[in-house]
Design a protein that fits this description.
The complex is a heterodimer of chains A (115) and B (112). Chain A is mainly β and 115 residues long. Helix content of chain A is 0%, strand content 50%. In chain A, a hairpin with a 5-residue loop joins strand 7 and strand 8. The N and C termini of chain A lie far apart (37 Å). The mean pLDDT of chain A is 92. Chain B is mainly beta. In chain B, the strands form two sheets. In chain B, strands 2, 4, 5, 9, 10 and 11 form a six-stranded mixed beta sheet that branches. The chains are: A mainly beta (115), B mainly beta (112). The interface between A and B is medium-sized, with 28 and 27 residues.
């Protein structure tokens, strides 16, 4: 079974630009979550989608947005990039359908550098 | 307000000895706990989990202990191997929550 696939793996942007990251979950998984990892910080929750609906959102500004498509693939977008947005963005999928988030399967991440 | 805390940023252990990684939480609603391992340039991989109805769960060399009254859990690795060198994250979730709350991680170095 193929794992979680994230594209692109690495990208460099400048302040003020926007970026779109893509995530393909494990086949059959309908839940997709996004996390941000910065140096010295743990993984900080961005949002979670299930069957195209956002079920939960973390404490990030509105510049961070996401969506999920009918095939469970997900994208996240960051507009008006700031230097502090430089981070590893991790996507995770889960078969958990309801009640709670259980075990997450992570992709390798998209490393964003903002100059 | 950090709800999941890993107070030791790093830990060094000799090969063959026991590694003990600790994690504390503050949210009483958390009832499911997980440990993840992360190598550089890779995503975290699930290691082991424990439900709040248990106080111990074992999987090979890895054992997780949960002390609900102290809101504390620990991961024991016995015996430690050089390949265990990685960053270990503790995570927690509660019923009805669609997110995992992670600690900041502990970097384990197993010295041959």
């Amino acid at each position: 079974k193929a794992g979680v696939t994230q594209t692109p793996r690495y990208l460099i942007k400048t302040r003020g630009q926007q970026v779109t990251l893509s995530c393909s979950p494990i086949s059959g998984h309908r839940s997709v979550s996004w996390y941000q990892q910065t140096p010295g910080q743990g993984l900080q929750f961005l949002f979670e989608y299930f069957s195209e609906t956002q079920r939960n959102k973390g404490n990030f500004p509105g510049r961070f947005s996401g969506r999920q498509f009918s095939n469970s693939r997900s994208e996240m977008n960051v507009s008006t990039l700031e230097l502090g947005d430089s981070a590893l963005y991790l996507c995770a999928s889960s078969s958990s359908g309801g009640g709670r988030t259980g075990e997450l399967f992570f992709g390798e991440g998209s490393r964003l550098t903002v100059l | 307000d950090q709800q999941v805390k890993q107070n030791s940023p790093s830990l060094s252990v000799q090969e063959g000895r026991i590694s003990i990684l600790n994690c504390d939480y503050t949210n009483s609603m958390f009832d499911y706990f997980l440990w993840y391992k992360k190598y550089p340039a890779e995503g975290p991989t699930f290691l082991i989990s424990i439900s709040s109805i248990k106080d111990k769960n074992e999987d090979g060399r890895f054992t997780v202990f949960l002390n609900k009254s102290a809101k504390h859990l620990s991961l024991h690795i016995v015996p430690s191997q050089p390949g265990d060198s990685a960053v270990y994250f503790c995570a927690a979730s509660g019923a009805g929550s669609y997110q995992l709350t992670f600690g900041k991680g502990t970097k384990l170095s197993v010295i041959p």
